Amino acid sequence: MRRGLRVDINLDAAGYNLELIGKRVRGAPVIAVVKADAYGHGAVELSERLLHAGAHSLAVAFVSEARELRDAGVKAPILVLFDRDEIPTFLDLSLTPVLHDLSSAKAFDMEAGNKGVKLDVHLKVDTGMGRMGFNDEGLSSLMEALELRNINVTGLMSHFADADLEDSKFSLMQIEAFSIIHDRLAEKSIKPLCHMANSAASLSLPEAAFDAVRPGLALYGISPFRDKDYGLRPVMSVRAPVLALRKMPKGKTISYGRTYSATRDMVVAVLAAGYADGFPRSLSNNAEVIIRGKRAPIVGRVCMDLSIADVTHIEDVSDADEALILGSDGSETITAWDIAERAGTIPYEILTGMGRMSERRYS
Q: In the annotation, is 118 catalytic?
């Protein structure tokens, strides 16, 4: 058998989520973020579906991700958020770089000039994330970048630091800072496509929409807000085969470190789900899966390749069954938020971890 979890991807749900976001931002163009293999969902397949559903363009983190899309025949505009190496490749593949400082802008300007072309770029300003982008001290540099002859500044962007918090005070300050720059450019008749809103802002801060929005997580059906799903439809569900059933007498210890002792005579199922497959080790003795419509707790430590679930209370379990790790079987549901909270992390890490190492099936 092929190692790893079995991941089912519902492409129609992705299209629905895109349309839902579009309605919330009153029709603003959606730049679909498909970095990290579309958050573990498959960059090529999700990009094609999202573009078919009306996405304005795509955004990835690095050139290698953009190259995969171009090699697969994706012709839509692709924004590269962080990479500034391989400058000739941007020109060869018709990619749009996001430039964070004047030195990068000059380097791209020089390469475009050497090839006798004009390259479309987006500039990023730091309004409070404190990570990358032209900052307050660098606004003169931003204006200088706008004057370079061989790059065409078609976009201006920023990024929220905590738009997923209930307290939106800092996000509103960021919006104000970005608006000041936006208005200053408009006074000079410079009108690039301005975009700032991530998933959280797209769903909850209509004033952040500007000319376009840039959601990621919400496209895959997961709300950035734990207790409000906004009607999004999860795109990914995850299952693991049952490899074996074992009878465990009372007092028998289970898995590495003997952290679990059977509290009664038990039957356990060995699952093909380990931390190498994105099922976090922190779920040891601290998670549930769904087998035959019932919840089964994980007992003992999660191993590299395997996990063990208590199925004593579930009738007729066999090695032909599967354990639902993420998703719904109609009666029981386990969400990415459920897993993330138990694992001490965020849904982004759960999706990318489980999705990228697994066998994916699309419907």
A: no
Does the residue 5 lie in any domain?
A: no
Same domain, 240 and 116: no
Domain boundary among 193, 220, 247: 220
d(CA 43, CA 40): 8
Backbone angles phi, psi at 33, to 5 degrees: -85, 115
**For position 172, what pLDDT does the model report?**
97
Model pLDDT for residues 223-250, shown as the tens digit of each residue: 999 999 999 999 999 999 999 999 999 9
Q: Among 122, 216, 113, which residue's Cα sits nearest to residue 164?
A: 216
Find the domain containing 214 and state its range.
11-220
Q: Which of 191, 247, 256, 362 is catalytic?
A: 256
DSSP three-state, residue 33: strand
> What total number of domains does the chain contain?
2
What is the per-residue pLDDT for 348?
97
Q: What is the β-pairing status of strands 322-328 and 333-334?
A: antiparallel
Structure tokens at 100: 């964070």
Which is catalytic among the residues 35, 260, 275, 348?
35
> Does pLDDT of 138 surpass 70?
no
Active site residue 348: no
Taking residue 90's Cβ as centre, other Cβ atoms within 10 Å add up to 24
As a residue count, the chain comes to 363
Whether this prediction's pTM lies above 0.85 is answered by yes
276 and 334 fall within a common domain: yes
| Strand segments (E) across the chain | 6-9, 31-33, 57-60, 78-80, 96-99, 119-124, 151-157, 193-197, 212-213, 236-248, 253-254, 260-261, 266-271, 288-291, 294-297, 307-310, 322-328, 333-334, 359-362
Q: What is the C-alpha to C-alpha distance for residues 25 and 206, in angstroms, rounded to an integer?
A: 6
Asked which of 55-64, 70-79, 126-135, 283-292 is least confident by mean pLDDT, the reply is 126-135
pLDDT for residue 23 is more than 80: yes
